[in-house]
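Below is a filled-in request sheet from our internal design queue. Each sheet records the structural input a requester submitted and the sequence that came back. We keep these sheets so that new team members can see what a complete request looks like end to end.

REQUESTER: design group, bay 2
PRIORITY: normal
MODE: inverse folding
CHAIN LENGTH: 181
BACKBONE (tokenized):
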């Protein structure tokens, strides 16, 4: 029964564009054993093992923080010692895409993101903003605020300067209204 479930996971991962290397690592089955060949990512993304998206400031960093928070809500705060399984990876991907369907995210990006966190290449910190305190990732220990709070702080500063609060409404950040109001 377990063998059938593992093959089902392998086939599902292949159907959503997961790389064969990842499927083999998570399931122990080579690509010759899958019923389905690896399909293109349903969202058209072909992410590989890279951290460029994590080191830039912008929408990708929001995605990284969102992904980290979903992981913590589902599996707890021990990201470094968590053993990623095919079922966990599928759960993270489906949850993330259900909440943020317009984000540029793929199953491969999620896998490599957590592999990098487990290797301690990035630091998990907690936002210093009093009303936020949410976890975020950073390559620099000196970062004290998550991307959402940093962006909101800059927008508020500009809004005071320009006397315009409509800048907040133009952001594509669902967290912006709940993180720091």
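RETURNED SEQUENCE:
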């Amino acid at each position: 029964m377990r063998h059938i479930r593992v093959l089902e996971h392998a086939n599902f991962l292949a159907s959503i564009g997961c790389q064969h290397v990842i499927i083999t690592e998570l399931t122990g089955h080579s690509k010759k054993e899958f019923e389905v060949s690896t399909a293109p990512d349903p969202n058209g993304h072909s992410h590989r093992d890279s951290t460029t998206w994590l080191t830039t400031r912008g929408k990708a960093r929001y995605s990284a923080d969102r992904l980290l928070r979903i992981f913590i809500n589902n599996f707890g705060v021990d990201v470094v010692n968590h053993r990623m399984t095919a079922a966990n990876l599928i759960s993270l991907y489906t949850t993330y895409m259900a909440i943020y369907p317009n984000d540029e995210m793929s199953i491969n990006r999620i896998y490599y993101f957590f592999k990098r966190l487990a290797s301690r290449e990035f630091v998990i910190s907690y936002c210093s903003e009093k009303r936020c305190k949410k976890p975020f990732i950073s390559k620099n220990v000196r970062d004290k605020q998550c991307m959402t709070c940093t962006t909101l702080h800059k927008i508020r500063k500009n809004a005071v300067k320009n006397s315009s609060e409509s800048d907040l409404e133009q952001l594509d950040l669902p967290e912006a209204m709940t993180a720091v109001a």
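SHEET NOTES:
- The longest helix spans residues 59-75.
- The first strand starts at residue 123 and ends at 126.
FILED BY: M.R.
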